[in-house]
Structure prediction request, 393 residues.
Amino acid sequence: MKVLKIASYLSLGWLLLAVYPLHAFNGKYAIKIGNHYIDRLTFDWLYSHWIPNKEIDKTRFSEELVDNRLIYQYTLETQPQLLKLSEVDYSLSWHINRQIINFCHSQFPQNILSSEDENPSRKFTLPQLKKLVGNFKLTSRLGYVLSDEQKHSLDKVILLPLDKYKRFSLLTLFNNLNIQDKQRLFEGDHQIISREIGFQISYKKYCKNKSESELSMAKAIFKSLHFRNVLRDHYGISLNQHGNNDSLRTFKKQVTSKDIEDFYNAHRESFKFKQKVKYAAWEFSSRRLSETFKDQLDNGQVEKKTQWHLKNNEWLNNLAFSLPVNKVSEPILSPVKTWTLVSVVDVKYDYYPLESETVRYIASLEIAKKHARKRYEFLLRKLKKQIRITINV
Prediction:
C-alpha cells in the first residue's frame, strides 16, 4: 500500500468520488482521497482499457489518475472555456457515455438476442424500420443529422422504460451510435437495436447497485481521462502543433540569449547534423536485376565507387542522407522509374552554429518545456496539501 499525503485545494466534494465509511477501504477500493473512493472494479477496468499493453504498472497509472483528476477539476473551475473549446467539432460527451456504458456492460452483461419477449427490436420488420428512420444525408463533420420530423418520429418509439421519468427511445439509441452504426441502423440492422438495449439494461442494473455519487465518480474519472491530452497540451507538458500553445509561448518569450547559449553548450550533441555523406549508387531497369546485384554487393563481389555529396534537393542525395552507414539499401523505385541501390560508406558531421534559427527554435522550446513542467508540478503540489491519498493497487 502506498500512502501519499496530499494537500487539497478543494472541498471534499470537489472530486465527485463516492463516499464510503473508512473501514470499507479494506481491499475493495483501489484509491482513497480523503473519504472518497475509486473502487477496485472500476480501477481495474480503466487500467485494462487505457493501458492495454501495460506500458506502465498499476501504481503509476493510479498516480496519473489522481493527477488527471486534480488538474481537470482545477481547470474546470478556473478556465472552463478551455474545456468547452476542446469539444468543438468533437462529441466528447458521446465518447464518455460510451465508455461508461461499455464499463457497465462488462459488469452486468446482457444478451437479449435469443429472447423473443425481451427483444423489442423484433417487432420491427426491415421496411418498417427503414420507414421510421427515413432518408438521410451526411450533413455534419460529426455525422448524420436528422430532420425535426425524423427526430419526432424516432422519439415516439419507446424501446425500454428506464425509470419513472426516463425512457430509452429509438432517438436516444440513434444518438448513442457512432457513424458506422448509424449507417447500419439506416440499413435496417436489428442487431444494433438489440445490442443497445442490452447496454441500457446493463447500465440500469449498474445504477441500481451504485450510489448516485459513485456514478458521478465514474463519469468524472472518464472525463478527466478524455481531457488528459488536452490539458497536457494546454499546460505545456506535451507538444501540440509544434508547441503552439499559450503556456509554451509565454515561457518562450522569457527565454534570453544567455539561456540559449547555456543550453547550447550543455546539449551541443543535440545540434549535430550530417554535413556530407559518401556513397555509391546504381540504377537498373528491373527489380530482378537490382536484387541480383545487391546480393553481389552484400557478398563483397563488387567494388564500390564512392564520392562525397552535400545534401540538396536531388532525390538520390536526400535518400542517401536518410540511410545508415555500411548497409546496402533495398531496391527503391526512383521518380524516373528505375530501380536504385544506394550504399553509404562514410558520414561527416557538423554542428549548427549558436546564432542559427535552428538552435534558437529548439533551445527556446526545450527551455520553455522545462519551465512548463516545473509549473505543472508546482500546481499539483499546491493541489495536494491537506488531502490524504491512499493507493492500494
Q: What stands out?
A: Confidence is low (pLDDT under 50) at residues 1-26, 112-119.
